[in-house]
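pasting input
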Amino acid sequence: MTINDKHVMSMSEKTARRWLAERGVTMEHIAELVLFLQKKYHPNLTVEECKENIERVLKKREVQNAIITGIQLDILAEKGLLEEPLQSIISTDESLYGVDETLALGIINVYGSIGFTNYGYIDKEKPGILQYLNDKSHGKVHTFLDDIVGAIAAAASSRLAHRAAQTE
Ligand SMILES: [Mg+2]
C-alpha cells in the first residue's frame, strides 16, 4: 500500500463517518441495533463490544464506498438534483426500486452469509433508528440510508457471532 492509497482510504472513511453523523445516525444508534440482533445469543454483550465490531466494519473500503454512494444519492434526491426517473423513484422511496437493498448487500457480504439473516430480520422489525429513518413525515430522504444502517448492524453482528464461535 502506498501513502497515496492510504490517503484515499482515510478520506473515504472520514467522509462515510461524517455523513452518517450528519444524516442523524450515531454509533450508539447502530450499537443499539447490534444489541437487538445479538442479545438473545450473547446476554452479557455490552454496547462497547458492539461499537468495537461496528468500528471494524467501517474500516472496510467496500463498506465506506457503499455508505458514501448511498448517502450521496439520498442527499441529491432531497435537494431535487437528480434526473428523472431517478429523482421521483428515490425521493418517494419507490418499493420496487431495489437498488438500495442491492447496495446494502455489498456491506452485508463482508462477513459472509450469516449477515443476510440478520439483515432480513432487522429490516422487517425496524427497531430504534430504523423506525425514524423509515418515517416519511419529516421530509428527509433516507431511501439508501435505512438499508445501509441495517446492513452495518447486520455485518457487525456477523463479525461478533463469528468471533464468539471461535473462542467458545
Ligand atoms: Mg431503503
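fyi The CA atoms of residues 104 and 116 lie 10 Å apart.
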